[in-house]
Amino acid sequence: MKVVGGQQDDLASKTKTKKSSEASDEAGATISAAIQGIRTVHAFGMEKVVADEYALLLEKNASIEKKAACASGAALGYGQGAPMMFYAFLFWFGAFLIAEGDVTFEAMMSSLFALMTSAFGMADGAQLAGDQAAAKAAAKEVFALIDDTSDNEPKGGQIPKQCQGTVRFQGVRFAYPERPDVLVYDGFNLSVGAGQTVALCGPSGGGKSTCMALLLGFYRPLAGS
C-alpha cells in the first residue's frame, strides 16, 4: 500500500513537472521579451499590460503547483497512513490466530516483522519516485536540445590553404525568421580588409548585431554572400 502511494506521488510529480515547466517557460519568455524591448514597451505605455500578462502566467503556474501539491500530499498521507492500518489488521488477525491456537506468539511476530521490513524497504525506494520523475522530465528536455539540428548547418565547404582575413558582404538580403516580412538587409555590401577596424553605427534595429550573427553562421542570408 505504501508503494502504491509512492507510485501516485510519481504520477503527480511527472504531470506537475511537465505542465509547470511549460508555464514557467512561457512566463520567462514573456518577461525576457519585455526587458529586451523595454524602450518599445515604455514608448507605448505598455508596462501595466506586460506586468498583468506576466502576473497571469505566474498565477497559472501557481495553480498547477497547487494541484500537484494536493495530489502529492494525498499520496504521501496515504503512503504513511496505510502501513498503520495494515499493522492494526495484522495484530488483530494475529491475535485471532493465537487465540484459536493456530500459531504461537513468536511465530506471529517473526512473520509480521519479516513482512513489514520487506514492505518498508520497497516503500523507501518508492519515495524516490518524485525525484526520479523530475529527473526524467529534465533529461528529456536536455537530450532534445542536444539532438536538435540547425537548418543553418553547412552542407559542404572548402578548407583553404591560406586565408587573407578579408570579410566581404556582397548583395546580402536578410530577414529574421520571426519577422520574414521585415528586411534587415536589402542589397547590403561591406568589405573589411585584414587588420582594418570598422565601426557599425546606427539606430536600434539597424542591423549592427545582424552583421555579426551572419558572420558567425547563426543565420543564412536570403540572397547574396
TrEMBL record:
Main localization (coarse): membrane
Record-linked SUPFAM superfamilies: ABC transporter transmembrane region (SSF90123), P-loop containing nucleoside triphosphate hydrolases (SSF52540)
Domain ABC transmembrane type-1: 12-134
Name this protein carries in UniProt: ABC transmembrane type-1 domain-containing protein
Coiled-coil stretches: none
PROSITE patterns per record: ABC_TM1F
Keyword tags: Membrane, Repeat, Transmembrane, Transmembrane helix, Transport
One of the GO BP terms on file: oligopeptide export from mitochondrion
Pfam families: ABC_membrane, ABC_tran
Native organism: Heterosigma akashiwo
Any one Gene Ontology molecular-function term assigned to this protein's record: ATP binding
Cellular localisation: Membrane
